[in-house]
Amino acid sequence: MRTFVSAVAVILGVLLSAVAVPAIWVDRNVVDEDGFVAMSAPLGQDADFQQRLAAAAVGTIDTSSIPDALAGLVQPVAEAAAGSLTGLPGYPAAWEESLRKSHRLNFADPASLPAEADTATSLTLDVAPLVALAVEELSRTTGLKLEAPEQTLINVGQPDQRQWIERLSAYAPLAYSLAIGAGIALALALVLARRRWTVFFSAGVGALVLAALWTFGSQWARGAVVGTASGNEVADRFKDAFVAAASSSFQSWISGTAVAGGVLLAAGLVIGIASRGRRALTR
Fold first, then answer.
1. Residues 171 and 104 in one domain
2. Do 205 and 264 have their domain in common?
3. Which of 68, 91, 184, 240 has the fewest CB atoms inside 10 Å of its own CB, making it the most exposed?
4. What is the pTM of this model?
5. What residues make up the domain containing 173?
């Protein structure tokens, strides 16, 4: 009976870990604002993405208040501002603030958001800090007083993806309870097992299997997301780069799980061999 309960506890621990680990990663790197910014910030170093984003940001500047006689002069200056925006000292801070505003926009209560955000069905980037930086540069260059908008929204992804954000926000924090449950189950298996080396060995095999399943699942998810198009070149560029960064980040967790699985498996084998040696000597 003890052996049966121990085996069930090991299986339960592995199954709980299968859900807990990815969910903890999501909570720390997607749901958590600081984690999201830390993972997304390097995207601003992609030269091609920077230029496209800068051009899109400058293209949203409202120049309707500029006299018609000066409009033709402002356009070349605006284009030059787009080209130099990423080299301005304030660009890194503006990009980080854009990420923070975008995160708050997508993970906020939909009822508290402006109607133009359309976040009931889609994910949205708010690049207003980048637009404000461009407006400041354009005003400095031309001497004209321009107003920066409070929000500049770019829809990302396909309809109904907002629902996934709501589910992540609701369920990701539960991952820690699942992780505790997995730890308790494995500890119980170790206490009840007649041959404790089998618990280490089984847990190691389970970890290696999970690492393989997560690798397959992350590759499938990456392909599915990258295969969709929003129709906005800047949004698609951000989506593709973000998915690549997320995949790379989670891969490090997968690698850690595989290493832990290998260590547990080896420990189980060593303990098992040692146990058999001790029993042979006592006979």
1. no
2. yes
3. 68
4. 0.81
5. 2-29+166-276
